Amino acid sequence: MHKDLSPAFEQLKNEHGPLRQLMEELYEQAVTMGKTGDEKSYAQSLHSLEEKVDSFLLMLETHAEREESFFFPMIFELTGGENGPIAVMEEEHREAKQHFVHFKEKMSTVGVTIDKNSAIMTADPVAKAYVVLSDHFMKEEMVLFPMANQLLVEEQKDELQRQLMKADRKK
Questions:
Q1: 52 exposure class (CB count in 10 Å sphere: 0-12, 13-18, 19+)
Q2: What single-letter DSSP state applies at residue 112?
Q3: Three-state SS sequence of 49-109
Q4: Is there a domain that residue 154 lies in?
Q5: Whole-angstrom Cα distance, residue 112 to residue 119?
Q6: Distance CA 83, CA 133 (A)
Q7: How far is residue 150's CA from residue 20's CA, in Å, rounded to a whole number?
Q8: Is residue 125 within 8 Å of residue 104, measured between CB atoms?
Q9: Which Pfam families match (predicted)?
Q10: How many domains does the chain have?
Q11: Residue 166 lies in a domain
Q12: What backbone phi and psi angles, to 5 degrees, belong to 159?
């Protein structure tokens, strides 16, 4: 029997939609890097990708912060603490962020031109972050949110919803 998600979990799940859409655009641009063009157009494509990554990271940071500040602490102990799914989720957040940091570090050396192989290698961490986040979102939607929906009592779900709404008002 699949019980409907509480409003708080629906909200967190719904935040994945726009993130996933942007993420897919980033991935597409990253994996097609170097397919056509020249040294100048590769550099332009990378700088365009970097702008999109920066916008995506602002959205992702807001979402991740909401999960890490409100949701994860509520179910950390209920699901096995240090060895449970929340520890895995937090590690995936760190791993995805690290891929983006790696991309930004590589971008700091890109000038007006860049050769094909360097362009491909520079864009690669964005594709890796996509793989981590796609898997992460799926696990949250299919396993973690439904599990938390069952484990938390109504008062806890209501409190999570209040915290999310309060965070929305601060934006």
A1: middle
A2: S
A3: HHHHHHHHHHHHHHHHHHHHHHHHHHHHHHHCHHHCHHHHHHHHHHHHHHHHHHHHHHHCC
A4: no
A5: 12
A6: 20
A7: 26
A8: no
A9: Hemerythrin
A10: 1
A11: no
A12: -65, -40
CATH number of the domain enclosing 84: 1.20.120.520
Domain enclosing residue 111, as ranges: 7-149
Count other C-beta atoms under 10 Å from residue 62's C-beta. Answer: 14
pTM of the model: 0.91
**Per-residue tokens: 144:** 């973690």
Residue 28 inside a domain? The answer is yes
The two tokens of residue 66 are 């909401």
Structure tokens at 97: 């962020």
Contact of 133 with 30, CB cutoff 8 Å? no
Could you report the per-residue pLDDT of 24-41, keeping only the tens digit for each? 999 999 999 989 888 899
Residue 93 placed within a domain: yes
Cα separation of 105 and 13, whole Å?
31
Q: In whole angstroms, what is the distance from residue 83 CA to residue 24 CA?
A: 31
In tens, the pLDDT along 86-129 reads 999 999 999 999 999 999 999 999 988 999 999 999 999 999 99
pLDDT on residue 163: 92
